């Protein structure tokens, strides 16, 4: 079973308007509220592709209950650690073509006791094969929380996947994650490495450094410009050959990671198919507010080019 850990879940509130002016009333439309957070998005996508998955996270208040109930209604089991306060509501505003405002709140604080409750939960997961840890940490999370969670996963002989923007990523690579999914911004901010689609020397050097630091496999996503995957021996590049109308880029990275994992976790030799599914899924998700229904993925897979770089 692939469990996901979302330390800082959120209700995503997607709305649209035509332009945004200060000091005036803006009438918005198309409001969509969905239970989210990066790891939840991974679980929902894995579930869509028929992979057994369950959600771990800290949840609080009415919004926490909405997310837990919403996830269960979508058919994914949740093991919540209930905390004080109110789980955040993040606001994603589409104000016109190519104009997105992403307002991401800090979230409900957690305590040492909440962290211990999460560790006990992880210790008790009999069927844990892999824990995918995604997203930000809530206020008051201890410096050692992620390391503590990962050490418990490793003690059970399971693997872990990291999709985090925290500078802690540099340190946690030493624990040898099965897979990391940085984007170009995270590589620059955390490791001081610049990469660009098409500049394959810089990509190969970046991959070599990430492997040397401990990452077993790397899925490097570059938004609409494609993605590179490296297993330490070979590097592949995948990109789409068709245009999509972007409604919201929120959730695209999470769904791309999950779509990749949904195939590659159990069939490591199907890198090219996994990349095709990953890119097609991301392309479909940007057309929707939230994750959408993945209805165009099969069709989009035909328009994804994958080539071996090295
Ligand atoms: O603050 P974090 O945890 O980095 O990001 C949270 C978040 O923006 O990420 C997801 C999209 O990737 C959204 O569902 C969610 O609101």
From TrEMBL:
* Pfam families associated with the record: PfkB (PF00294)
Q: Which residues form the Carbohydrate kinase PfkB domain?
A: 11-293
Instruction: List the coiled-coil residues.
Output: none
Say if the entry is tagged with keyword Transport.
no
Q: Which domain of life is it from?
A: Bacteria
Name one cellular component (GO) term. cytosol
Ordered alphabetically, the record's keywords are:
ATP-binding, Kinase, Nucleotide-binding, Transferase
Transmembrane stretches, by residue range? Answer: none
Annotated GO molecular function terms are: ATP binding; phosphofructokinase activity
| Keyword Kinase among UniProt keywords | yes
Which InterPro entries does the entry link to?
PfkB_dom, Ribokinase-like, Tagatose/fructose_Pkinase
Q: Which family does it belong to?
A: Belongs to the carbohydrate kinase PfkB family.
PANTHER family linked: 1-PHOSPHOFRUCTOKINASE (PTHR46566:SF1), 1-PHOSPHOFRUCTOKINASE-RELATED (PTHR46566)
Name of the protein in its database record: 1-phosphofructokinase family hexose kinase
- Tell me the classification of the organism that encodes this protein: Bacteria, Bacillati, Actinomycetota, Coriobacteriia, Coriobacteriales
């Amino acid at each position: 079973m692939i469990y996901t850990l979302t330390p800082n879940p959120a209700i995503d509130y997607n709305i649209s308007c035509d332009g945004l002016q200060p000091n005036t009333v803006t009438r918005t439309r198309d409001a969509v509220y969905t239970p989210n957070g990066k790891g939840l998005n991974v679980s929902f996508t894995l579930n869509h592709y028929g992979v057994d998955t369950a959600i771990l996270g800290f949840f609080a208040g009415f919004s926490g209950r909405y997310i837990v109930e919403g996830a269960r209604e979508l058919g994914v089991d949740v093991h919540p650690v209930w905390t004080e306060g109110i789980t955040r509501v993040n606001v994603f505003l589409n104000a016109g073509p190519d104009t997105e405002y992403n307002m991401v709140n800090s979230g409900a604080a957690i305590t040492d006791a909440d962290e211990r409750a999460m560790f006990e939960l992880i210790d008790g997961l009999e069927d844990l094969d892999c824990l995918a840890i995604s997203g930000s940490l809530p206020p008051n999370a201890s410096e050692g929380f992620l390391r503590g969670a990962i050490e418990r996963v490793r003690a059970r002989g399971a693997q872990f996947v990291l999709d985090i923007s925290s500078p802690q990523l540099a340190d946690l690579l030493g624990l040898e994650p099965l897979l990391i999914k940085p984007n170009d911004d995270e590589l620059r901010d955390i490791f001081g490495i610049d990469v660009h689609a098409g500049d394959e020397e810089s990509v190969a050097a970046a991959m070599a450094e990430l492997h040397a630091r401990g990452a077993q496999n790397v899925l490097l996503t570059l938004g609409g410009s494609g993605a590179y995957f490296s297993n330490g021996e070979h590097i592949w590049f995948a990109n789409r050959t068709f245009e999509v109308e972007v409604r919201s880029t929120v959730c695209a990275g999470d769904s791309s990671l999950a779509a990749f994992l949904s195939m590659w976790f159990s069939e490591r030799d199907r890198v090219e198919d996994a990349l095709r599914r990953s890119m097609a899924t991301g392309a479909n998700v940007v057309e929707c507010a939230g994750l959408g229904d993945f209805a165009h993925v099969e069709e989009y897979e035909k328009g994804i080019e994958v080539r071996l770089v090295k």
